Amino acid sequence: MAALSEVLVEPPVGVEPTTVDLSTADVRALNGALHAPRVAETSPRWRVLHPDGRHSIAVGLDAEVEVEVDGHVGYYCAGMNKAATVTINGNAGVGVAENMMSGTVRVRGNASQSAAATAHGGLLVVEGSAAARCGISMKGVDIVVGGDVGHMSAFMGQAGRLVVCGDAGDALGDSLYEARIYVQGSVKSLGADCVEKEMRAEHLAELAQLLTAAGMDADPAAFARFGSGRSLYNFHVDNASAY
Amino acid sequence: MNPGPRSPALPPDPTLRESATFDRRTIAEIQRAAETGIYDIRGGGAKRKVPHFDDLLFLGASMSRYPLEGYRERCDTDVVLGARNATFPLHLSTPVTVAGMSFGALSGRAKEALGRGASEVNTSTTTGDGGMTPEERGQSKHLVYQYLPSRYGMNPDDLRRADAIEVVLGQGAKPGGGGMLLGQKITERVAGMRTLPMGVDQRSASRHPDWTGPDDLEIKIRELREITDWEKPIYVKIGATRTYYDVKLAAKAGADVIVLDGMQGGTAATQDVFIEHVGIPTLAALPQAVQALQEEGLHRHVQLVVSGGIRNGADLAKCMALGADAVAIGTAALIALGDNAPGLDAEYRALGSAAGFYDDWQAGRDPAGITTQDDELASRLDPVQGGRRLANFIRVMTMEAQVIARACGKAHLHHLEPEDLVALTIEAAAMARVPLAGTSWIPGQGL
Ligand SMILES: Cc1cc2nc3c(=O)[nH]c(=O)nc-3n(C[C@H](O)[C@H](O)[C@H](O)COP(=O)(O)O)c2cc1C
Q1: What lines the ligand 1 site, CB under 6 Å?
Q2: What ipTM describes this predicted complex?
Q3: Pick from A115, A67, A107: which is nearest to A89 by CA?
Q4: pLDDT in tens, A51-62
């Protein structure tokens, strides 16, 4: 693995970001440096140049660092993130922030499929749109999408909240467990056992909080709420066609 | 839903003729289905007879081969798993490893017992569809952490705590199927670890949520390496079906170790129709996997761990001879802990089964306290004693394989080779690609 000094464009000065240029350094060296013990103290801010669609950028972070990526990233950027704040000034490939535990990941552009798949916590903000399976098997994460989400979003969602400021594609919330979904625009179709639910005061309040946290300017009252009908929780022969 | 043992009794009147097509078991199953409206779910592996390692024999030393002296001459059993890319591969003293079995399917104490037993003989255990428990991590010296489609309890801390990572594509008992854990086993602790409501019939995903196909798998493996700083071996587990292609693709995707699970492989809960009718026998799959690795120049560089119906040292030795680097045991490990013990016969009978037949591992009422989440039942298993029994069993398996290897003149289990084997049946000869005993004929390979 390349030493930290080899991947730096310029040495860290005060709170100036540590800059890594991926046109010369490799992703392995970048991640190794981001995993260094006490990284939050020694280099709390990072800037990544020329990501050029590379995969696995800034994965497995476990410290309160801020990473800004200037450009488009490939698969799994910020995968399994803990504590860190990762901002992508571009589009993200498959599985951005997959299995995130905590922290914040913000995509300024669009996100490909399976954004925040299986994520347990933290906040993913996609300012553009997210493709299919956004929030698939989500387990506690909060996801706020400024635009639309593709089909099968929140499939098997177990916990957490998905907020869609635009429209949702087919089979939203299929086989949903306890995740909650808020959609402002239209929903093409609901998946198996996903039902529209009443928007009560506590839902308006949590939605307002999520929109604020994500920096989205939208009126909570314009959203509809969806959740699990809980009719598939235990096998029943009359539901056989839904399995 | 165990129909229990059937008496093999002759029909009451010798003029009565039982149909081979509609035999009594088949009739009973139609009646049961008509009654309940649900398929039969059970634990264990395929019960039908399929060509297996019993259909192979070793030739032993002869005029042209010298045997090694038992006890005096060395026959090593150690194996290194995952040295292809990982900084810290696993160094095990025996090639018998413990297969992935979930906390949820098994009690915390059973997981602890597996960890204790495996560590005593310096081999590995594997987590399962339900995350890593402190019981197992605490006791298991070498712990393989499964990365499954459900990702229940998956978190980067456990990933970093693990000694290896196993990306699960499938299981021999149910290639193409996801996990299943019935509501009675989704207790508060299990539900918490899986982020599920208590008491649901959990059906976990059969496809990974963020990748499909070999090209994505390569990227996924790379991500797991990046997260863990390239320290840990990455395994890929496949259920035996299109084994030749799957092994090639997994090896090309960068797997350090391939775990190949044949159709006899156990499960905690799967539809009987799935267990019995999907997948191919372990014996048929193993030579395909070895061929695939050899053609890629990766045999012995990417290790092959074989499971599915491995019961004794002879099975182990035969797997080694056919080109495996190690084996994994599931069902046999549970039996070693005390599953299906004769002393529990009365209790098994009260559940409609009998010692030697019990397979309702999905039901959570296991009198042996292994496949349960009921605290009272689970407390019946002493993890220390259970661990000792498992360690004994693995020692016996290893010694049995050494007996055979020495008789074949081999100073290491890995020196066993297909040339040491013959087959008893044409089917086994064709599958294992070794000659039918007493001939030089390997079906499918000309004369
Ligand atoms: C009780 C039980 C639970 C299992 N749980 C898992 C699991 O969570 N993940 C997995 O990949 N395989 C699981 N398996 C399959 C085993 O890892 C292994 O492939 C199989 O048991 C090997 O075959 P054998 O039982 O004939 O030794 C389970 C098997 C059993 C018996």
Answers
A1: B 43, 45, 99-102, 105-106, 128-129, 146, 168, 171-172, 237, 261, 264-268, 307-310, 329-332, 361, 371
A2: 0.93
A3: A107
A4: 999 999 999 999
